[in-house]
Write a structure and sequence with these properties.
Largest sheet: 9 strands, mixed
Helix content: 25-40%
Structural class: alpha/beta
CATH superfamily of the largest domain: Dihydrodipicolinate Reductase, domain 2
Order of helices and strands: HEHEHEHEHEHEHEHHEHEEEEEEHHE
Strand order of the largest sheet: 14-13-12-11-7-10-9-8-15
Number of helices: 12
CATH topology of the largest domain: Dihydrodipicolinate Reductase, domain 2
Shape: globular
Length: 384
């Protein structure tokens, strides 16, 4: 019986075909920090891409970055506007601080340039709405950098739900966390309000939200009751080599929320950069016909934490069906880059559409607002 159940989830593996008609996609890099390195290294794997320009606000940083990554002949600029104004670009990767995601993306779209925007989409719902409006007006592609979506196990998770195997979904629990993992190896840009805007909630929480929301079809969020804290971030003991970081910490290191979604679904969410626990628990999706358990996962690293398990009752007997982990093949980050390039080149839809991540950002914004106000808040998303 188990084999028959598993057969329902078989799918064709889509292969990316690079049909090179001789045209090279000209790409510019906005922001040359560590995440930009992953973009560049994977663009370099694409024979139909040419990295022609890079911009960074910090003097000399872009030049150093290009030399370190072996890209030559790249024109360098002190900001995104001067780069976009002086180059004929097909696309840009926005790899800047969270606080500048909106302004960089909007400017590129307004000037007819396709955008691959690193996660989180931005900091506030208002910013996300402005980005989406700019995308709609421009007619260009905006894709958000959620590479775990392209993992074969993540695809299987979505397929299990889409088959109707679980029945109508009514409850979801998700999240993740690190016992100690406030990201400061590259300085304080992740923990200062003026650059990051949000902490664990947006940095890794956006991944946990996308994992389950994408699986269940991205229902619209309605209300949220949220909580955030910064106990570890503001403790000098957290930074034995840099106790001064505690004074600079201006975001959250833990967040939790109860979110009501359209369709009668409730979402129980928690995320942490630091906590006195190894994990906040597995991800579970409960349906009227069956339940699904996804082992505790650092999904921001690209996959699930083990085999999926379906729990059901058949002929009065409780049955568990295990879906083994799947070989993922190509690196997820490369898939993100390659699919974006293909979308630009062949006029395909954005691999990770902003219309979905708008809901993700609305939840994050709602959690932050609710935590500040100390009460449940409504989530109102305007028409784009």
């Amino acid at each position: 019986m188990a084999d028959n159940i598993l057969d329902r989830f078989k799918e064709n593996t889509e292969e990316t075909v690079v049909d090179d008609n001789g045209k090279k996609i000209k790409v510019g890099i906005i922001g040359t920090g560590w995440i930009a390195e992953a973009h560049v290294l994977n663009y370099l794997k694409c024979p139909d891409v040419e990295i022609v320009a890079a911009a960074d606000l910090i003097d000399g940083k872009a030049e150093k970055f290009c030399k370190a990554n072996g890209i030559e002949g790249v024109r360098l600029y002190p900001d995104h506007k001067s780069m976009i104004d002086n180059e004929e670009l097909d696309a840009v990767s926005v790899c800047t601080y969270n606080r500048t995601h909106a302004q960089c993306s909007i400017y590129a779209l307004e000037h007819g340039v396709n955008v691959l925007l690193e996660k989180p989409m931005c900091v506030t719902l208002d910013e996300a709405v402005a980005i989406c409006k700019a995308e709609k007006k421009s007619g260009k592609i905006l894709s958000i950098g959620f590479q775990p979506r392209f993992d074969e196990n993540m695809k299987m998770l979505k397929k299990v739900v889409e088959t109707g195997e679980l029945g109508d979904i009514y409850y979801i629990q998700t999240g993740g966390g690190r016992r100690r993992g406030i990201p400061t190896p590259y300085g304080t840009s992740f923990i200062e309000d003026e650059t990051a805007g949000l902490g664990a909630l947006a940095d890794i929480g956006c991944y946990s939200l996308d994992m389950v929301l994408n699986a269940v079809g991205y229902p619209k969020p309605l209300t949220v009751s949220g909580y955030t804290s910064d106990f570890f971030g503001k403790d000098p003991v957290t930074y034995p080599n840099h106790p001064e970081y505690a004074e600079k910490f201006g975001v959250d290191d833990f967040a939790a929320a109860f979110i009501r979604l359209e369709g009668g679904i409730v979402l129980d969410f928690r995320i942490a950069w630091a906590m006195n626990l190894d994990t906040p628990g597995d991800t579970i999706i409960l349906g009227k016909k069956a339940g699904l358990r996804i082992p505790s996962t650092e999904c921001w690293n690209g996959s699930i934490g083990g085999s999926l398990k379906i729990y059901r009752t058949i002929a009065g007997s409780d049955v568990e069906t295990e879906i083994p982990e799947r070989d993922n093949g190509e690196d997820n980050f490369y898939k993100k880059i390659r699919l974006f390039v293909d979308a630009v080149k062949y006029g395909r839809p954005a691999p990770v559409p902003s219309s979905q991540i708008l809901y993700n950002q609305a939840i994050i914004d709602g959690i932050a607002r609710s935590a500040k106000l100390g009460r449940e808040v409504e989530i109102n998303i305007p028409e784009i």
